[in-house]
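Support request, please re-run this one:
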Amino acid sequence: MDFKKIKITGVIVLTILAGFLFMSSRSSTDELRRELLVKVITFALDNGHYNPVVLNDDFSEKAFKLYIERIDYSKRFLLQGDVDKLAEYKDELDDALKDVDFTMFDLSVSILNDRIPEAQQYYKEILAKPFSFELNEDYIFDPEEIEFAENKQELKEYWRKSLKYEIMGRILDAKENQEKAAEKSDTVTIKTFAELESDAREKVLKRYDDWFHRLSKLDEDDRLDIYVNSLVNVMDPHTQYFPPKDKENFDIQFSGQLEGIGAQLTQKNAYIEVSKIIPGSPSWKQGELEVGDYILKVAQENEEPVDVVDMRLDDAVQLIRGKKGTKVTLTIRKLDKSVSDITLVRDVVVLEETYAKSAVINDPKTGLNYGYLKLPSFYVDFSKINGKNCYDDVVAEIDKLKDENIEGLIFDLRDNGGGSLEDVVKIAGLFIEEGPIVQSLGKRNTKKVLSDKDPLIQYGGPMVVMVNAISASASEIFAAALQDYNRAIIMGGNSTYGKGTVQNFSELDRMIPRKPVDMEPLGSLKMTIQKFYRINGGTTQLTGVIPDVVVPDYYNYMEFGEKDLDYAMPWDEITPLTWNAWTPTYDEDYILEISKKRIMNDTLLNLIDENGKRLEKIRENATYSLNFNAYEKLQKDREAEGKKYEGIGKNTLNLEIEILADDLPEILADTSKKARTEAWIMDLRKDIYLVEAYNILQDIHSYEVKNARKEERN
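Re-run finished. Output below.
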């Protein structure tokens, strides 16, 4: 960004702040903070967003719709009268944003603060006595198919039906479990239907007690986050406000590592419970902290402990996380009720499942090897100079695969939601000589072309790129570039996700250098600043990347992708670039035709397609009977129908997959890593899509061999 623009921005925002400080004598710090937050975000969007929307009545109605959906999507709290009362402001949110007026927001918080305790009373009263399951009545499962209740009696009735539906499911599960147990042992105590129903109500009551306890911990800032994001998401679905704690979690996800103790936590009513220990972390190495432990207190080194019972989970997490090398002492209550203190030295916790890794697939008939490289995200650690990043890791993995003398490479981007734009351009450049990878359009139609300028090709053999409906953003840039260069065969479902926009983060506090010292941090704004385009001129926005080889996938029958999001930016195209396409060593049409025939005749892939259609029909059914016998029959019919598909993904297939020789010493030296790697390899051996990708590489190799022999004869 141009330095002068930053300087001008600072002056203007400081002027905004001065106006607010003038009002501070009349406003509390909290009120001043939220006013400042909205003003700074509005300014940032007006001056930095790729295509800021006009603040008018249309904007207001869209923002209002989003806000109502987000504060009560399930329609379990608000009455129609409440919505009508709030709707009096639905055309005024644009003016409220300009004037920094929180009248509608404050009214919504007030209404929710009244309705949530009423709903809590509903479920407690309803679950206090048994249900009658002989009545013939229906429950509409999908909130989008119902209207808000007209009165409290109608709302309570909706709660009754939803709770009854949940109880029925638990009774049926318990009933089937005890029947299976009784088949294996004659010592199993068989509970009556009434006892199963009572157990189910007790468990559901506990679940809702936990949920409402978490609701009680929501403060006005949490509500404000929802309100602000309802406003900014009218711009596009990926422009988002991040409170400070959420930005930290985003950074952890993006970099694949954090500094802390390596324990995943969850909230169980008033308690913070350990739900997972990350292998290799300080908690795992120290060995005393266990899944199921309750954390009662947290003490920093040489400080008094802080009681975290009844504390919000995110607040407790902030106390537990900390810089590498610092100590934290946890007071723990074990499952046997004993209480003890555990002192841990914080360290960098690496989330290994987020990093690139590879394996080798061996063809037992020919003895040839084929490479497999999984890249879960285009990660990068911006917090450190020369921090861990996906480009360096992919280079290292390819070098190891080349040591295995691979004849082809499978590059797996399934479930990869994107990440670093710079790194995806560099990684795509590993497979071509040089040339453009992606072009972007910024504010005021400023065009930029990102290219690979290094003529070195790290790997030049045949490639299959695996994608699915979750492959998004940077994954789509990579797949699109290799498809346009004719460098790889792209394989996946009907299309990738369809996210063709670029975002950056703005630290809001940096825009206000003289913010009051007693004011809480403002957080960050993730903002869409560019739209990216393929080198052929089309954007991946909405349409995604259409694979060369389309395989059956459950996502093919789901409403899933950018096109299904509210207020997504449209598809368009710009002038294509010039590039030198790759000349394959095989007849691509021939290879694709073989694959298509194989997929059409594959029993397992046909089963996946059938099951996808079956599950689509189930999702479309929003109404369920609350008569237990009718419900049980429906579920048993579905269960019987589903038995045909139970084997999908559970059986090992004809794949010989091995750990790379270069990785063996490190893996064998770490029992935990060895177990995780073996589990990963076993999952790969069950992957029918990986089988087809491998088959395509075999077809290419066979074609090349035959073609070479033919040329020799000539």
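The chain has a mean pLDDT of 89. The first strand starts at residue 138 and ends at 140.
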